[in-house]
Hints:
By secondary structure, this protein is of the alpha/beta class. Helix content is 20%, strand content 31%. It contains two helices and eight strands, in the order E-H-E-E-E-E-H-E-E-E. It is globular, with a radius of gyration of 15 Å. It comes from Nakamurella endophytica. InterPro entries: Glyas_Bleomycin-R_OHBP_Dase, Glyoxalase_6, VOC_core.
Amino acid sequence: MSLVWEQIVVDAADEPGLAHWWAEVLGWVVVTDEPGEVEIRPAPDVLPGLLFTPVPEPKTVKNRLHLDLRPDDQDAEVRRFLAAGATRVDVGQQDVSWVVLADPEGNEFCILSAPRA
Length: 117
């Protein structure tokens, strides 16, 4: 049996807006941009992607699944994401090495510390 991780589906109130925001901050490309379905990927032929689909209700609780991003420079990436419209979020993390942020629709994600040498 063979499986390929195709994508993660993200519920969104504004799927085109949120998809394009993520494409911009990740440096990814939009591969599908249709009503009710916008997919972004690292490159057109590279998986996995993020697929944004519309939902009528707003996000109300902490995500059960989130992205962890590991940059070379955590401080620079946190500043860049904040400048792009992310916000800092307290999910009870206390004193940890990562920074919890939320995208424009409130979906949490983490900017991890730089990789160890």
